[in-house]
Hints:
This protein has 136 residues and is mainly alpha-helical. The chain has four helices and no strands.
Amino acid sequence: MLVIKSLHIIFVIAWFAGLFYLPRLFVNHAMVDDAATIERLKMMEYKLYRFMTPLGILAVGLGLWLWLGYGFAGGWLHAKTTLVLGLVGYHLYCGKLMRDFAAGRNTRSHVWFRVFNEVPVLVLFVVVFLAVLKPF
Ligand code: HEM
């Protein structure tokens, strides 16, 4: 079980690197207008999204393995899983925003993306405290 939990935490960290960095690329993308920079950002966003998606699947999959394979229970796990489903939605929405940028359809400002970028930070704090403290 401890090997699964170690892998769970490793892939959570790797997934969050993408959840933190992709919206930051969007902040920069919404501020630039020279063609060379825009093309480079499109390529970086595409490669990062393609890299972070399997990491997210592994992080969540290993969490479900811990939950269902080792009989964990409690309100903390339901609250945590609900928040993580929100994170999965955030990840998929980043995919939609990436495709909007690739097609030149983005209408949102860099300020909007700076606020959007903070969402995973808040969720990370709550989920880690739920997982470690198990308050209910
Ligand atoms: C559906 C997704 C997930 C499920 C079902 C899940 C489930 C679990 C379970 C059952 C444990 C073992 C708890 C223990 O050993 O005390 C665990 C540990 C942990 N999970 Fe998740 N997890 C999920 C996603 C995440 C995410 C996204 C994060 C980070 C934001 C996270 C952070 C942690 C941490 C830090 C631990 C270690 C807790 C400890 O050792 O006390 N998990 N998870």
